[in-house]
Amino acid sequence: MVFFLLFALSVVVALHYYLWRKLVRATTRPGTRGRRLGSVAVIGAAVLLLGTFFGTRFLPHSVDRVLAWPGYLWMAVMFYLVVFLIVAEVPTLVARRWLARQARTAPMPAAVAASGGLPATAGSGVATAEPGFTTAEPGSTTEPGPTTESDLVTAEDRAVLESRRLFLARGVAITAGLVAGGVTASGVGTALGPPQLKRVQIPLARLPRAADGLRVALVSDIHLGPLRGIGHTRRIVDMINGLDADIVAIVGDLVDGSVAELGPAAGPLRELRARHGSYFVTGNHEYFSGYEEWITEVSSLGVAPLRNERVQLPNGVYLAGVNDVVGEAYGDAPDFDAAMADRDPTRPVVLLAHQPVQAYEAAKRGADLQLSGHTHGGQIWPFTYIVKATGQPVVSGLGTVDGMPVYVTNGAGFWGPPVRVGAPPDISLVELRSIQ
User: Fold this and answer.
1) In CA terms, which of 130, 215, 282, 334 is 20 to 30 Å from 160?
2) Above pLDDT 90, what percent of the chain?
3) pLDDT of 106-130, one tens digit each?
4) What is the pTM of this model?
5) Distances (CA, A) of 317 to 205, 241, 359
């Protein structure tokens, strides 16, 4: 935990220092009121983000809700500011060099040329001596010579170059702000809007004809917490009940908080309807939120937890579930052998597991299909590529792991910033098809 806190602090400080250099230092002159106000604003933003990041873990739910909205929104804006400014580094550098070259190659003013003077190199701060003036020896105390037209031209060129540099920096900063604000605003609308309904058909070789067309309503990453409450749950339950599914599968990350704080928000889950029942497996966030209490709470709502175990459905299909991999640190590790052993090998197994990476173990033990969440589809582009780099074999939609199909839902909620860019929330209706 200490290492994590130090790492988070270092990252936040580094990112805000970068933003200060690009948005404040580069766009203002030293000692100006604008620079002072900009510096205070950046420091305040960093403190807000740190307060949100740690406050939502350690402060009461009623308090962290106040921090969460401005803090997490700033996190999203900050991210896109950094992304835009990094992308703009090269073209900005090219533009600055072009401006400097233009200043150096500017034609000599006629008055200076007529007097035989040579203008100083712009930005050098050193004027070229006119004929008749000698350069003082090192250590001499000669009186400074008269101000020449060449000196005046040099100061003017330097002022023009500085003005152009400020204009360029301010243009980049304004553009970055508009892009980051616009993308974030669009992402907020997507994240807070209703989940999309995705329909997918998956053929399974061992699926009996009696089970052909079995429909699984799959939802994950609801993330009840400081930013989403009972209204979010009701909307999800209404959508699922409208699908007339055979099974409802909630594959983890239901909550970000304790039962005492969020129990009422989860209440509408008792209204879920499915022919063969509703089932739940833990995600990593359940372990951060008191998983034992949540297992009891979910059970009381009529949703059956599958904890390294399986059930046999009336149509000859096994539905299995394993704990999340984070459970190992809490003495509640996933146990694929317990979930898959001593079964009829002629019958298919549909496995519920929060993280797609668990598919490697599932495939070794002969599972026919894994249904997962966890990735949020990346949630905020370009995090899709970062999630993939962390070792998750499938980020969104249908893929395969060692020949076994794996379907990953984007999830119905969000974590952290109430923003989704390029990965809209969804509830998936998975229809199993027999090829016998």
Assistant:
1) 130
2) 74
3) 554 444 444 444 444 433 444 343 3
4) 0.84
5) 12, 22, 19
